[in-house]
Write a structure and sequence with these properties.
Length: 250
Amino acid sequence: MLKAADFRKIAREGLKGNWLLAVGAGLIAVLLGGTIITTTGSSGGSSGGSSEPMPDPLSFQQAMDGVTTEPVIVNFLLAVIGITSVFAILYLIVSLIIGGAVSMGYARFNLNLVNRTNPDIRDMFSETGRFKAGFVMQFLTTLYVLLWSFLLVVPGIIASYSYKMAPYILMENPDMTASDAIKASKELMNGNKWRLFCLEFSFIGWSLLAAVTLGIGMLFLRPYMEAAGAAFYREIKWERHKQTVDAQQI
């Protein structure tokens, strides 16, 4: 049974000579909401709360009093906030609509990377004809994780690990529905969620180094993690197939 170090090694071997290509694909995935392994529950993902101290109420009020004496500044700030909010909402909508299809394309790219079968940036858009399936997959997995999170944080994290292989499964099975892919991912991840957590946690040192570089290091860390995730999917898929074959021979 392969360990975290084995998956990282496979990822590095696949990335040799393909780092810039992988970084470009990773940027596309992030911008279009199509990341897979590093989306939730990841040591390389976004951090939780902020450690910065809250501003002093009095000084904050004094600052605002100063701002309100300049209507031009107030109007400018309101305009900036409004425009930013509109763009943020549009980005979330676009990510929700096309993110699922992009994640399937990213799954294809990373599998080609670790299989060394000529990964291409065009892989990222290979599933654009399946926007509906991708949207349903993205919507349902988000909904399920959210509902589990209403119970406690931990059940939500566990649920997120159950559904992480759905983009790979849906990409490799064009006739499968999004619901069936999510169900297949849940079955495939039975007994493997802890292994994936250990794989992601093994990147904690690199994540700290990436933080020191003001996040620039994440340009290279995320593709590394996603490639390792593709190697993980390939391995557990083969293990499950072998178990099925062995069971049939008994």
